């Protein structure tokens, strides 16, 4: 038995989009409410910085509001929003390279638990966070869209502006790289050749 994560009926979202395209700001605000947390979470995983993720999320929705009339009814609104967010992220990275401004490398720890559990959880989170952060940006973006957002490979490809086959390959390679770092003992013999298995 699977639990539907989104109780909103597809027709209801389509109505909101139609109203937003007709200039209804409150309908667009409902779409923002629906997708803000998901987009922010994805952008946070890409940027590893809360303020940058907030800025990019806000900028994404401002651009979406300006372009909402160009959205094609019947296509995937979430994929469209994430595509705008991805473009903003890519543009921000280009600007950073020009100014050579490094992003801080901080990971959020668990909120409350016993001291031993907190330490263990923090270590595990940091290990996973560092491994994900070390992935090439294209692989990281594809993996997080697939795993965190549950998008299909076709939707991942659409967001990242690539082919479905390339999206599959990036997610596969991202998982393979994470396994080499996090659980080399689970890889088949020879799969981690050239890399230390600790």
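^ structure tokens above, recovered residues below v
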């Amino acid at each position: 038995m699977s639990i539907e994560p989104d109780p909103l009926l597809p027709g209801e979202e389509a109505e909101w989009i139609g109203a937003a395209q007709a200039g209804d700001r409150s309908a667009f605000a409902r779409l923002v409410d629906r997708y803000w947390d998901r987009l922010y979470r994805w952008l946070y995983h890409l940027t590893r910085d809360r303020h940058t993720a907030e800025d990019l999320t806000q900028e994404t929705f401002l651009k979406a509001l300006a372009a909402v009339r160009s959205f094609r009814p019947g296509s995937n609104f979430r994929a469209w929003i994430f595509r705008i967010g991805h473009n903003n992220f890519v543009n921000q990275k280009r600007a950073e390279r020009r100014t050579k401004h490094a992003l801080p490398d901080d990971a959020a720890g668990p909120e409350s638990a016993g001291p031993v559990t907190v330490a263990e959880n923090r270590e595990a989170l940091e290990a996973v966070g560092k491994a994900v952060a070390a992935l090439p940006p294209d692989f990281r973006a594809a993996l997080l869209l697939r795993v965190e957002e549950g998008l299909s490979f076709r939707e991942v490809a659409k967001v990242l502006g690539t082919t479905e086959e390339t999206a599959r390959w990036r997610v596969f390679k991202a998982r393979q790289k994470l396994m080499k770092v996090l659980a080399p003992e689970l890889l088949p013999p020879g799969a981690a050749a050239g890399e230390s298995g600790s």
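The domain at 7-106 is CATH 1.10.1740.10 (Rna Polymerase Sigma Factor; Chain: A).
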